[in-house]
Specification:
The protein folds into three domains: 112 residues, DNA Polymerase III, subunit A, domain 2 (DNA Polymerase III, Chain A, domain 2), CATH 3.10.150.10; 124 residues, DNA Polymerase III, subunit A, domain 2 (DNA Polymerase III, Chain A, domain 2); 113 residues, DNA Polymerase III, Chain A, domain 2 (Roll), CATH 3.10.150.10. It contains six helices and 26 strands. It is of the alpha+beta class. Strand 12 and strand 13 form a beta hairpin.
């Protein structure tokens, strides 16, 4: 093995690759990255058996070969070499790293011991614009459950009908839904896959060039593969039944309120200070020309903030967990928000003005007067 490449090109790829490096000690090989030199490129791979990342760096390959090296040490060394050429070579089972006035020797483990990240790529089911991934998926993924106690809720449901894709995430207390997402791939086929939320979040970190992200599914190994430019992200699909979320989506409402995102975000932040000791409960009192956001903690005090709003239908009251509100408002860029509700014990539905294909639902909190 012998290859020469630019330090800045290696730096661009190594930090993202580390996202898949295992910190567990049970399998020492998973703390390594696999380096392969072939076909005019340096290929690097990492996996913790939950996700896998493969990326390529342009290089001048003199001798093909493969080896694994400790990820942490290798990455920290690369991070400190900002420019110039790097030469990598294998000598007596050790990887020799030469840079501008730098030489390092890494102990290695055999490439044969490194697990395969995927057997075969499978079939392309979608081709999604990079901008759509960043905008639309970020509006949804935060609603997935953080823990894996209920595996289905820790995933993001990606489903295709005849025309387009639907993306859904819920943790049982809130739900984000985006319908009508334009995606390439085969039309007319029904596809449904449950992808770990962690995999979707890693998608946002890919800084590779490329207008589109290809989504491929390997039914044989139950894996989803995202390919963009010279980088591949692999995750294992969740094999669990997703809840029938359609049943909790309200079909009607008695109150429709329009307001600005920024004023509500500020009001919730202010009231959350007083809500910390009462399960983060903030209350909305919806009137014709305003919404009063309030919080009350007997041992601390109470506060309220008024924001301008335009309400059609009934005046109403409802209470939510402030953290859920802050999560939602922090993951959208749009300024005009629609809020629909029917009574204080029914879910509240947030929509974005002018975007009928998106909604965010939050279950209310029963407040004792």
């Amino acid at each position: 093995m012998k290859a020469t490449l630019l330090a800045e090109n290696l730096q661009k790829k190594i930090s993202f690759l580390n996202h898949a490096v295992s910190t567990r000690s049970q399998l020492p090989i998973l703390s390594n990255i696999l380096i392969e030199t072939k076909k005019g490129k340096l290929k690097m791979s990492a996996t913790d058996l939950e996700i896998g990342i493969i990326t390529h760096v342009p290089a001048n390959i003199e001798e093909e070969g493969s080896v694994t090296v400790p990820a942490k040490t290798f990455s920290e060394l690369v991070a400190n070499i900002n420019e110039g050429k790097i030469e990598l070579s294998l000598e007596n089972k050790a990887l020799v790293f030469k840079g501008p006035r730098v030489k390092a020797v890494f102990q290695t483990m055999p490439a044969e011991d490194f697990p395969k990240i995927y057997e075969e790529k499978g079939e392309e089911v979608a081709r999604i614009a990079r901008g759509e991934i960043e905008k639309e998926f970020s509006r949804v993924v935060f609603s997935a459950a953080q823990d894996t106690g209920r595996p289905a809720l820790s995933g993001v449901l990606l489903g295709q009908d005849v025309k387009d894709f639907t993306v859904v995430a819920t943790d049982g207390y809130r739900l984000s839904l985006r319908r009508g997402l334009s995606a390439g791939g085969k039309k007319g086929e029904s596809v449904s896959m449950l992808i770990p939320a962690r995999v979707i979040r890693e998608l946002f970190s890919i800084k590779d060039e490329g207008e589109y992200v290809s989504v491929l599914v390997s039914n044989e190994s139950s894996q989803v593969i995202f390919s963009q430019g010279e980088t591949i992200l692999v995750g294992r699909l969740i094999e669990a039944e997703y809840p029938a979320y359609e049943k909790i989506l309200p079909s009607s409402f008695s109150t429709l309120t329009t307001f600005g995102k920024a004023p509500l975000l500020n009001a919730v932040k202010i009231c959350s200070v007083f809500a910390r000791d009462t399960a983060n409960i903030v209350k909305f009192s919806i009137e014709k020309e305003k919404i009063i956001v309030s919080a009350n903690t007997p041992s601390v005090g109470e506060n309220r903030v008024e924001i301008e709003a335009k309400t059609e239908g009934e005046e109403n009251e409802i209470a939510f967990n402030a953290r859920y509100l802050l999560d939602f408002l922090g993951n959208i860029d749009d300024e005009d928000i629609l809020f629909e509700m029917t009574g204080p014990l029914n879910p509240g539905v947030f929509k974005i003005k002018g975007e009928p294909n998106f909604l965010h639902l939050i279950m209310p909190i029963r407040v004792q007067e």
